[in-house]
């Protein structure tokens, strides 16, 4: 039998054991068992989603087989949810799957939805607005995946998104070069660059070189290099310390790495804003994330305005003894900061009357300290359209992908009223509905809708199917990706609408507030 470390090796490199554990605890509900649903679930079953439940009362018909690769002729006449569940589970025996043959989601009460960590609506369902409101009240993330012909969209509806392990591409090593602590300063002072022999001089870690030069700048009241010109000057200082810049690898590294390494140690503005939000919250009614943010603010106020040291070091040219010693100094400082932060969590939890044992999760505390400079917070909305999207759509004579989104949204309104997808013969009633529910505040009559929008409506209704497999696969992949971000609590998720136009192969995203 293949163990999980081997089976999930590639994804563990992305989100580690903590992310995998979160994924395996996730229970997902999928509404509808169509092609988009099957492609989404395929991409979640393979990496080891804990459990899924499909809600669909329909039976498999010949039309389902054209775009859904997880339904076969042997499934004809059977319940779609049951057939899709059975076929998907063949992909991964670690996953648990269930199905519910329910014709109307209106008959499913709040207790039914409360068992899920998130819900996906694949394409269209009656009772959509009521379900959105219910899940919003229960604080259950909802993802709405839509395909129609060659067009598709995804809307992530979530009241609040907080991420600690963002894996942000701007992530840099936090080395505290301009604010060395005593043990680090003592290590730096142990190197006398002038008296070292040629071999030892070429083995001095470039962190030591940086700290020595930054001390010289402070002594001369010069600023820490921030601008390109200042860093270029700093580069010349590095080269001046080298005995042969063409041969000493450590000085070559110091010169090439300074732009991403020599940084002023400060709390990033984004984290400052998150701290401000935390200070206004009733922490007795919040998630653990906000307890940690407030504890982080308390930690920084007692630590010269500094965040916890992550403790990780980049590779660098050095002999083993120097590098190991430097690594030990950073590791010990990180442990000390982590313990001090945990103490702040403990004090804060006690003051709030919370169970300290629940809050003092050592894995979470370690992750929070390592990633505290790149925390992410976003407030969501259950609104489906914004004034800006409508105004973009109404620019006369100009194609805009916002018209695609409003077409897909109007299709949802149409389905909710009539229980079927509109076709090209329904263009007039479709346009009238769009005017009534979307455009009316922005124009006096239906004739004011630009011709470009009517043409987009025509394109969408000319292919009134969600069974085109290429679009189902694409939107299913996008949707699964966002589910993985939410389930693993890692990476920054979509915020909050994505639209794809397969005709011209372009996409756009918006934040609807």
UniProtKB/TrEMBL annotation:
Keywords, comma-separated and alphabetical: Cytoplasm, Ubl conjugation pathway
Subcellular localization(s) per the UniProt record: Cytoplasm
UniProt-recorded Gene Ontology molecular function terms: NEDD8 activating enzyme activity
Entry function: Regulatory subunit of the dimeric UBA3-ULA1 E1 enzyme.
Biological pathway: Protein modification; protein neddylation
Domain THIF-type NAD/FAD binding fold intervals: 8-506
Family listed: Belongs to the ubiquitin-activating E1 family. ULA1 subfamily.
Pfam families xrefs: ThiF
GO BP field: protein neddylation
A GO CC term assigned to this protein in UniProt: cytoplasm
InterPro entries: APP-BP1, ThiF/MoeB/HesA, ThiF_NAD_FAD-bd, Ubiquitin-activating_enz
Protein name: NEDD8-activating enzyme E1 regulatory subunit
Primary location recorded for the protein, binned into one broad class: cytoplasm
């Amino acid at each position: 039998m293949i163990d999980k470390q081997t089976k999930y090796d590639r994804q563990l490199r992305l989100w580690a054991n903590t992310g995998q554990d979160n994924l395996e605890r996730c229970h997902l509900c999928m509404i509808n068992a169509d092609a988009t649903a099957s492609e989404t679930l395929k991409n979640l079953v393979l990496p080891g989603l804990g459990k899924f439940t499909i809600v669909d009362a329909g039976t498999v018909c010949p039309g389902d087989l054209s775009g859904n690769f997880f339904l076969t002729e042997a499934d004809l006449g059977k319940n779609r949810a049951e057939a899709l569940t059975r076929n998907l589970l063949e992909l991964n025996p670690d996953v648990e799957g269930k199905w519910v043959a329910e014709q109307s989601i209106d008959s499913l009460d709040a207790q039914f939805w409360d068992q899920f960590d998130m819900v996906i609506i694949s394409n269209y369902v009656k009772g959509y607005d009521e379900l959105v409101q219910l899940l919003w009240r229960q604080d259950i993330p909802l993802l709405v995946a839509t395909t129609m012909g060659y067009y598709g969209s995804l809307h992530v509806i979530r009241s609040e998104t907080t991420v600690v392990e963002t894996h942000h591409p701007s992530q840099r090593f936090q080395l505290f070069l301009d604010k060395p602590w005593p043990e680090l300063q003592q290590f730096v002072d142990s190197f006398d660059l002038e008296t070292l022999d040629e071999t030892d001089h070429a083995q001095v870690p470039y962190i030591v070189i940086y700290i020595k030069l930054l001390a010289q700048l402070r002594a001369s009241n010069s600023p820490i290099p921030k601008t390109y010109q200042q860093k270029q000057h700093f580069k010349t200082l590095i080269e001046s310390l080298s005995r042969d810049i063409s041969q000493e690898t450590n000085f070559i590294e110091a010169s090439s790495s300074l732009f991403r390494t020599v940084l002023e140690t400060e709390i990033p503005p984004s984290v400052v804003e998150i701290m401000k939000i935390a200070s206004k919250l009733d922490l007795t009614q919040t998630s653990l994330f906000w307890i940690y943010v407030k504890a982080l603010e308390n930690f920084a106020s007692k630590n010269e305005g500094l965040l916890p040291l992550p403790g990780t070091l980049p590779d660098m040219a050095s002999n083993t003894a120097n590098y190991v010693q430097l690594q030990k100094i950073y590791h010990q400082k990180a442990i000390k900061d982590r313990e001090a932060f945990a103490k702040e969590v403990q004090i804060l939890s006690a003051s709030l009357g919370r169970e300290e044992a629940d809050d003092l999760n050592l894995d979470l505390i370690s992750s929070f300290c390592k990633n505290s400079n790149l925390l992410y917070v976003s407030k969501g909305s259950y609104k489906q359209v914004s004034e800006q999207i409508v105004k973009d759509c109404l620019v006369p004579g100009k194609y805009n992908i916002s018209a695609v989104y409003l077409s897909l949204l109007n299709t949802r309104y149409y389905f909710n009223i009539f229980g079927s997808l509109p076709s090209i013969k329904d263009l007039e009633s479709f346009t009238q509905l769009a005017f009534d529910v979307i455009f009316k505040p922005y124009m006096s009559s239906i004739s004011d809708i630009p011709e470009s929008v009517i043409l987009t409506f025509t394109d969408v209704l000319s292919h009134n199917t969600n069974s085109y497999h290429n679009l189902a696969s694409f939107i299913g992949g996008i949707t699964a990706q966002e589910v993985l971000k939410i389930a693993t609590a890692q990476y920054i998720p979509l915020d909050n609408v994505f639209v794809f136009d397969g005709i011209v192969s372009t996409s756009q995203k918006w934040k609807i507030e």
